[in-house]
Hints:
Blueprint: H1 3-12, E1 14-17, H2 23-37, E2 52-53, H3 60-63, H4 71-79, E3 83-93, E4 100-103, E5 115-118, E6 121-124, E7 127-132, E8 142-145, H5 158-161, E9 171-172, E10 180-184, E11 189-192, E12 200-209, H6 226-229, H7 237-242
Antiparallel strand pairs: 1-10, 2-3, 3-12, 4-11, 5-6, 7-10, 7-12, 8-9, 8-11
Amino acid sequence: xxxxxxxxxxxxxxxxxxxxxxxxxxxxxxxxxxxxxxxxxxxxxxxxxxxxxxxxxxxxxxxxxxxxxxxxxxxxxxxxxxxxxxxxxxxxxxxxxxxxxxxxxxxxxxxxxxxxxxxxxxxxxxxxxxxxxxxxxxxxxxxxxxxxxxxxxxxxxxxxxxxxxxxxxxxxxxxxxxxxxxxxxxxxxxxxxxxxxxxxxxxxxxxxxxxxxxxxxxxxxxxxxxxxxxxxxxxxxxxxxxxxxxxxxxxxxxx
Length: 255
């Protein structure tokens, strides 16, 4: 991150990376999802928050997100070089899709998704890259958060967190297809009901410090691990390090 991005990330708990994915790649990804939807209704999109996982195994375009050249340097700014890929999922919402309550926040404290700054360095327990494959215009719903709540000293009022009443504290974040919202899991965030003209397609890639595991996912390099073996011959050196299980010795660094 440059100095302005680091300031914004620390101030708000997120930044928007404009045009992180090229329009050609976005088109190919959407074509892939459309083709899968012909035989698998989960790819059509739901009205809830059903998740599709292991999306980096879908095609080379999705695998490239794992160590995306625009994203990776920014991840290193908040996680350092000793980090790992923790888990991924995709959520495809049809118009009318319900929201997801706001979760996270610095209080009550959660050691698995902390946010601290010490001696000019950011420390995060979990960082999320949310890639948009469709436009999310202002007022359409989708990703929303309470900026600055990753450093809050008080618990968010329940009726605001549960989206039971509108609040000026909650900000909907509009994006264009190809943009990426990079945010700390400690940020109070969720999904407002989707009111867009078509489906909302979002890919979530989540990263943690190398010694932590947040989700119950196993990408370990083993012959009996079907997830790893599905991409084993396509992985570069950086991706192999990112898929390592949690390590406490700190010897494995992301190139």
